[in-house]
Each structure stands twice: as C-alpha cells, then as structure tokens.
Design a protein that fits this description.
homodimer; alpha+beta; 306 residues; 27% strand; 28% helix; 7-stranded mixed beta sheet; 60s Ribosomal Protein L30, Chain: A
C-alpha cells in the first residue's frame, strides 16, 4: 500500500471524529488538525517525520537536518494561515551515532528562530537509519488590523471562479538544496490572511508536487483546479516543467482567492483558476501543458504523503 | 553518549525557555511540558517513541504495539495528574510492511478508548525497523468536587518528611507481558488529585526502574527519597527484588504526600519517605535493601530515558 493510499484510509476513518469528540474542530486530512481548548482557543496541530536516506542524505550537515525537521512542520502551520506556538521532537538515532546532542541543540535553535520553542523530546537508539519526528502546535494568526483571530484556512474552502496562486517557483528542490534551506511561508500566509480576509478561500503547502497538492484542494473542495503550466515559474536550475511539477518538497503555498477581490494577493503569482468539475474532468486538478494538452494533476508528483 | 545523559543535556539547555517564552510554564525535563494558551488554559504535552526490537518484539500483535504506543504517552499525562485531550502518531514502517492500515486503525481505537482521539498522523517508509512516535496533548484534571483545575503535579514538588507511595507492584514487565497490557494510571492520579489536593506534592511514572525514577523526584526536589525494598510488592512472576528494581517499564506512578495528611492516598501503598540530603547521601534516592544495606537508586534500572 502506498503512503498516500494509507493516509487516505486514515482520513476516511477519522471523518466522524468531530462528531464523537466535540473539541475536534477539524480532524486528520488537512495540513493541520484544529482542536478547541476548554476556554475556546483554537489550536493547530501537525506531525511529520524525517527519515535518513529518504528525506535527507546521510552526509547532510546536522544543522540542515535539524532545520528541515522543524521547517517542514512549520510549513503545515503556514498552510493553515497560523502562527507556531510550541514544538516537540523525537529522534531514533543509529547505534553509535555521536551527534545527538548537537542535533537536538540545532533543533532547539531553529525552533527559537521561528518563535516555536521545543518544549518536549524523546531520544532512543535504532538499528536502522535515523528517524526524526516533529510535532508543532500553533494558533490562528491574529489579524494585525482587527486583532481578531483569522479562521484556519482549509483545503476545502475553494470556490468556483477563484484564482489560484502559488508563493514561489517550483522544481529541483533536491538538486538545488532548496529542500534544506526553504523558508516556511509563514509571513506570506499571514500577510494574505490580513489583506484578503474572507477572500482567501483555501490553502495547502506543496510537499508532493504542484499538481498532486493542487488536486488535494480540488478534491477537498469538490472542484477542479485548472493550472496553466506556462505560468508556473521554475526554480533554477530546473528547466523541465514536467519534471518540476513532479519534484515535490517545494514547500511553497498554493492558495485560492475570490476572483474579484479588491486586494492584490501578497507574495505569490497567479497560475490558474477554480472550475466546476465535469464527468470528463472530475474534482481535483488539471494541468494545461505548454502544448495545450490537459493532464490530471495526480499524474505528477511523488508519493510522499504529507 | 547514553540516552539519559543526552536528555539531561537537553533539559539543562532548556532551563531558560520559560524566561524567553512566557507561555512555556514548564519546559522539558518533567513527564510533560506545561504551556499556556492565549486565554490562559494550561496544556500538558508529551512525546515518546516505540522502536521495534527495543520496545517490542517483531512478532508482537499489531493491536498490542498500537496499545503500548498510546498508553506510554498517557502514562506521562497521568504522572502530571492530568487528563488526555488529543493525540498524534507517526509511523516509519519497514519496506514491504503490509499492516500499516491496521496499525493506525488500532492506534486510533486505543486513542478513543482512553478519550484521546488521534487528530493527526504521518506515515513513511524506512529501511530499518519500525519506529512509532506518539504525541499527546492533555489538560489539568478538573477536581470533581471544586470543579477547579488541579495544578500539574511536578517531579520537583516533594518536601522533606513526605511519605513515598507507588500505585502497584513492580518487576518482570517484559517477561509477564505487563509492558504491553498495563493500564495508564490516569484514574489513580486523578483520584489522588481530588482527595489529597495540595497534600499531593510530586509524581513521576516508572519507566526506567523504581530506583532510577524515584531518584529523579529526589534530584528535581533537591531531596533524598529513601525507599524500603522490603515494602515494595513484586509483580508475579518476579521474585528477585534486585532485578525487579531494575526492570523498568512498570508504568506505575511514584508519588509523595504530606506525612500528616488527613486523607488516605488512593490506589497505592507506602514504600518510603523523603529526607533532607547529606554530603554522604546527596539528593536523589537511596534504597534500603532487605539486609539493611543502603544503595543509590541510580544503580538500578535501565537506560530507557523517558
């Protein structure tokens, strides 16, 4: 069973969670879950893994491994339009690994850097490759003008007619080292929450590839995201758009905005629009390639299952 | 570097966290961290790992692996006198592993069983053994009489003169299968929070062995826990007290109570007392063996580092 298939099963099974547990506002299936505390505060919670040989090469500098572990979870917080509050990290370290202290030190520093102090951790020894897990708890961004909480931005909020934006170029994340040095798009997401308010409809971060992740917004919203490949900017040295759409680990945000918004979206550019699906083109994503051919978004991307 | 040594470094480095981040009430180093939400709600947060070949044998039934993953984190919530709210779980699954769906299904069911719905997860493939991580977010127990929140019970709260209790027998957790079937001591902890109120001073769960974990209360409180080995009940089939003190994975709670409390502690029995340390016997734990010899608590136990 593929990772994304397995996650699909988990999400399907969790659909009734907010019925049985009233303080679960949004269960598994979005970039973060949303839960409600006793006094009514909303929390965003997300967890991720980083596995040696899969998400980073064994010779990667410790500081960059630590950075990526924290940054990936923060990208999920950004994708909900939130702010990070606290983090927890676990490490299963290979037998004889000598740098556990430096690794946790670096994770703690990157947590502080992004205003997300690490408050808990666990370390153990494994006979396999290193496995890190990070959990981040965040909160909705507070609108800088109204001082009210911005509601979490879900994958399911897109509306027919919306324009589709992405916060940066895509492709060659591994080759370029971007996957180790990307900046979680917290600032861009918060700017758009402030500026666009309820005109910001849906958001997701690009971990598995632009087409595949755009399709997740489409399916969650019951709509079709139509992306013009020719409008998508490629990250140097990427030059092959077909490959770039499938590279993944871009950690940019895709978001959809009311077509006739009076405000220009911040820190992103338009790559398409949201349409009503048809029998021939069901909910999800369609990519119009530079020759005018229409391809399903799920054809691109790798099975990374964030 | 041993696991416990590494964790010690992490705790040491995190001591200033609540100065720099005002909403971190208790940083790393106790059974849970304690953080404060915008409206002032206290949250308990804890994270743990379960590694194939280390914390469970490869042929362990999936349901029991899942049960242990959730129960261990709940034991940390119990040790703070709290109630669980929500959980998250990650799994690094060996290549070709066919039961990922059943595993997550079982973790979700055990979460619900203990009123701790799983709201988030991540799955990925590893070339090594299975690594699970669980994060649980809880809250202080609400006193059933006063309806007010019980303050989190820390390791550092013991006072000289306190009596030391444990909630059950210890030893042979692996041999007896107890490590897969134990009940997290949530109910006992909550009963004592209700009944004893401020007379309940300090608490910890026994994961690395009675002597070693009692020493953690002692060091955190700057005091000496003196335990009478002859008063400690052994879990069948354990018969060797020396081994039992070192077995670990008991997941019982050690707690200390005002000597002259008017209320009988619930679901536990007395095994010792808290004394002022001396140069010859510094803060930590001393175990008086059946022959009257005094041994340091840290001599027992295994390096499991919860």
């Amino acid at each position: 069973m593929r990772e994304s298939e397995l996650l699909g099963h988990i999400y399907e099974r969790s659909r009734d969670l907010s019925t049985a547990f009233g303080d679960v506002v949004i269960g598994p299936g979005d970039d973060c879950a949303v839960v409600r505390t006793s006094s009514g505060d909303l929390l965003l919670v997300t967890t991720d893994q980083l596995i040696e040989g899969r998400h980073f090469e064994p010779d990667t500098p410790i500081d960059l491994i630590a950075r990526k572990a924290i940054a990936r979870s923060l990208s999920d917080i950004a994708a909900m339009g939130g702010s990070p509050s606290w983090g927890l990290a676990t490490a299963a370290l290979p037998e004889g690994y000598e740098h556990g202290d430096a690794l946790f030190d670096a994770m703690a520093e990157w947590g502080k850097h992004w205003n997300c102090p690490l408050v808990g951790g666990d370390v153990a020894i494994t006979s396999g490759p290193m496995v890190l897990s990070t959990t981040v708890i965040g909160k909705p961004h507070v609108n800088s003008k109204s001082q009210s909480n911005c509601p979490p931005v879900l994958r399911s909020g897109a509306k027919a007619g919306d324009l589709v934006y992405v916060t940066g170029p895509i492709g060659d994340s591994f080759e370029s080292g971007h996957h180790l040095s990307f900046e979680p798009r917290l600032a861009q997401a918060q700017l758009n929450c402030d500026a666009l308010g309820p005109d910001l409809h849906a958001m997701i971060d690009v971990s598995d590839g632009l087409g595949r992740d755009a399709a997740r917004i489409g399916r969650a919203s019951g709509l079709l995201l139509e992306i013009d490949a020719s409008r998508v900017q490629l990250r140097a040295p990427a030059s092959d758009w077909l490959k770039a759409f499938g590279d993944g680990e871009d950690y940019e945000l895709i978001f959809t905005v009311t077509k006739d918004t009076q405000v220009e979206p911040q820190g992103g550019y338009c790559i398409g629009r949201v349409r009503t699906p048809t029998d021939a083109e069901p909910a999800g994503c369609v990519v119009i390639d530079p020759s005018g051919n229409r391809r399903r978004g799920d054809e691109f991307g790798w099975d990374h299952a964030d």
